[in-house]
Amino acid sequence: MDEIELGRYVNRVARAPLAVEGKLGKPILTTAAWPVMVQDRTGRAVPDARFMVTVARREEKGSDVNVASHLLLDLLHQRIDAAVVVSNDSDLAFPIAQARELIPVGVINPTRNRPAGALSDDPNRGTGGHWWYQITAADLTSAQLPKQLGNIHRPAGW
Prior knowledge:
Strands 5-6-7 form a 3-stranded parallel beta sheet, with helices on one face. A two-stranded antiparallel sheet has the order 1-4. Strands 2-3 form a two-stranded antiparallel sheet. The protein has 3 helices and 9 strands; from the N terminus they run E-E-E-E-H-E-H-E-E-H-E-E.
């Protein structure tokens, strides 16, 4: 049975040190340096001062818990003999690892990001037969409908 589980979005304000993206997307905290310098009350430079910033964030909540719950409930009630999870969310590492003990599990990464290391495992763990796949642009292009289907036309640029 196919199940689409939706989450919800919440808007939040987050405060954190200012950072730039480093290797593999890891944050590198930025500090005061020319041309943006920080001075103390006496006007002396404060070398390596950190900047605290407040940003608006939109976070998706709930879908990882819902997917994990459905996966484990389907196992408990023996409704499935294999599973495919489309996610790159490392929060699913524990339920997927538990499922791999009982059934083969495929994990499809739908993002451009590197696969989450926590979702990796031995393909022979538990029952074995586990696999991983990263969706590519070619996968999406090949799954499109033809340029014209009846009197419906695909938008230009698709």
